[in-house]
Amino acid sequence: MIARRLQYELMSHALGPAMVAYQTWSDERRRSRRAAKESPFGPQLECTRKLKELMTRHYLAGRYADGAVPVAWVTSGFPVEFLRALGFFCVYPENHAALCSVQRKSAELSEVVEKEGYSRDLCSYARSDIGCALSLKTPVGRLPKPDLLACCTNICQTVLYWYRALAEHFRVPLVLLDTPFVYGSASPHQIQYVRDQLGEAVETAERISGRKLSGERMQRTAELALEGANLWGQCLEQGRHSPSPWTGFDGFFHMAPIVSLRGSEETNDYYRLLLAELQDRVSRGISGIREERHRLVWDNLPVWFKVRDISTSLAQRGFNLVCTSYTNAWAEAGKRMDPQDPLGSAARVYTHIILNQDLNNRMEVLRRLATEYRADGAILHSDRSCKPYSMGQVDLREKLASELGIKVLLLEADHADPRAYSSEQGETRLAAFMESFA
Amino acid sequence: MRTTYLQSQKDRGRRVLAVLPIYFPRPLLTALDVVAAELWGPPGPPRGPAAARVQTYVCAVARNALAFLSSGGADVADGVLFPHTCDSIQGLATIAKDLGGWKKRSFTLLHPKGPSRQSARTYLLAELRGLARELGEWTGRSLEPKRLSEAIELHAEIDSLRAELLTRRARLALSDRALYQLLRRGEFLWPEDHLAELRDARKSLNGQKVQTGVPLMATGYVPEPGSLFEVLEQAGAFIAADDYAAIGRRLPTREVVRHSDPFETLVDGWFALPPCPTRSADHASRLDHLERLLERSGARGVLIHQQKFCEPELFDVPAIRKMLTERKTPLLYLEGELERELSGQAVTRIEAFAEMLSTQGRAA
Q1: What is the pTM of this model?
Q2: 3-state SS assignment for residue A36
Q3: What ipTM does the predicted assembly reach?
Q4: Fewer C-beta within 10 Å: chain A N or C terminus?
């Protein structure tokens, strides 16, 4: 245990950062030797290197976390603040699944679980992660074995079945935070239910970590999470400038710390840097794409395995994704956080996640984003793997087009599984959509 | 037929509430003179202008229900209740209500997920009281605790008879088709009418076994299409144990504790139901329940009968497969999309499965 802890600390605070710094330096050297290619994008964000360092350090430390500190695997919408305050190392299977998709590993990992009888119609994130648990194959080297699984149904109920399968596999406790869906506004008894479950979850986490939750640490973590959400929100708001200093596709990647590391100093330090850089780019008129002629809103998760292709197609024709309902979700939630009442406010915050609210609210969010970011078009990603995000988009398309007078494309794809996406059809639809602006 | 019957109930002063699957407090509706008309699709391809409003990768129950509600198919109903069963029905509730498809009153029941923990029991109690209040305002009737207690007893008797017909299936002189038609009539009949039919069917119970085919267990969401039972019968098999969400999973597995507050009794009844993935049962209790059903019924094979894209059910399939493989119990996996009839391929697979089991039985 002591040796493992020493190994973990060394990797987290000394060796890991040094290895990452060396990797960054060597990547930079390689890049500087390559001839610059013609690109439809603006100059790369300097912070991208920092982002890579931050996330690589996180996954590197994770390799040595189990046995050294308590480890929890958590859903992106779980109130992670109390776990952090209790010293848990948190792994986000959704973030990991996105990484698998970007690195073209999802199909291979899915096949592992499909052989076990899991249907291909199930969420591709779930298939990738269960596949990783069963095969131990992962692009990050190794994921630490969890001591606790923490799942919140505010993003979907799929996570419940997914985490139950993981709990069976790892034979560890599963903490469930069941958040009633919000039609209009949540009733007091619904919020109380979530608050009560948080109390039950804290007890389980305390038992596993062998620590008592300190009020002071909890408050500090909530303060950091609130500050992080606000900083992230300010970063996103830079996209309101014309031209936007970055693209929504950049946002998909730069959201990783607010999802996976929220409630930590390093996350907030990172977003302060990113915000400063974005503000600097705004002041110097630097755009996320070379020539911004049209501004788009994106709804739903990205098509991780096609981000490069889709963003390039759009940028080549002067289309910039200036905001997305997905990245915005992590900024919205922060507004309700109250560090003076961390668990009570967490119950409210985490119940009011965009995916846990009705379509009137979703339409309102899209309407507001399109207006505030002065978008003249929208792409609604009809995501085969994410039914809660995708149901209703057929109607939302009509409403956005008729109410705001913008052009809207419903793009059929999947967030992680390339086998569920037809490139030719997708590109044709995207091309036809862009031509309609002429 | 359903519409005519429901209209006749309205003529008697009752309200009709269309109800989406699966779990809802029937006694509460009965006590308020509300007839529940369950909406499991209906089967067949979605029809009408709203047929394409839900993507094809969403389960047919939700897709068909929106098309049906939007096209006026359920207009005999005065309102609709959306229980919080899965992401698709939850999504359907907000589409129909917020984006068009259902103009009359809609209700939701956001029931808890997971085990019987204190937070879930307290919450469910509040949620049921809230629903009762809303339904009371809607019907203009006040809910008397005595009436609710009587309705609980009425439904307990119905459940007990339904359970008896299913557990003593081998001694029941009814075809699977006739039995399932009877059980599914409970999805829209006024409880007293359904009770009368069940009592009548009980007379067909014999002292000894009358079903001579291969006993099977069926697990899945909803037994559609009904022709499945004819195919099974012709192939020499019958359903000896039922774990359909629409049928067997709605019958309590233990005696429900009666409390002085009938709402507390409803809460206990909720947690007395068999394990179901849509209520987030853990695998251990689900598999344990299925094994008990297998042993009690003597089923020699299992039909896993799923609806395509039904995530809660599909996530349990690998664990069920593993358990059956370890027990060396043969299984047939059948997947559909609420078709009106089985495909020729499915018929052949069922026939081959039944034949294989009957050959094994003879060899043993």
Answers
A1: 0.94
A2: coil
A3: 0.94
A4: C
